[in-house]
UniProtKB/TrEMBL annotation:
It holds the Pfam family LUD_dom. This is LUD domain-containing protein. The lineage of its organism: Bacteria, Bacillati, Actinomycetota, Actinomycetes, Streptosporangiales. Residues 95-192 form the LUD domain. PANTHER family: LACTATE UTILIZATION PROTEIN C. It comes from Nonomuraea glycinis.
Amino acid sequence: MNARDEILGRIRQAVRDAPEVEIPRAYRTRTSVADLVGLFAERVDDYRAIVHVLPSAEVPDKITELVRGRRMVVPDGLPPQWAGQAERAGGSLAELDAADGVVTGCAVAIAETGTIVLDAGPGQGSRAQTLVPDYHLCVVRAEQIVAGVPEAVARLDPARPLTWISGPSATSDIELNRVEGVHGPRTLEVIVST
């Protein structure tokens, strides 16, 4: 018997005669938000990300403006009109590190938290593609925005690799000095396509 088995055995012994207790699971699963796009844009901005809310017809031109002349990672499955006029970067780790940024779509976005969720689906890239470059341009379609986390989780496949992004990568040291770009892109720019 190892230490783990011994500890679990003691716990089982201690609760052996305890009555069964039903644990209520009345979690909130829906939230009412009058303006999902507006709240999402506000929360993304609160995280020090750059946010643009544009009609879908203007999105390709905005992407072209933002990526022109940059070496960008363009994941498989990204709509061609979202690739802009970027010079395409390769996929090796060295090429990702040398890239100026990445342009992606997303799986879902959460208005209450300003969070974008990637699940490595078409146009979202791999984790390395979205975490190594220093700049991330993410296009979020208005219909992908949900009010709260429970609604987002309901749309996601837990078997897929999920990356939850709430603003540019940032951390703070023991003296609470903010340092950006440590665990991912230093700059997050979001286009919400309405």
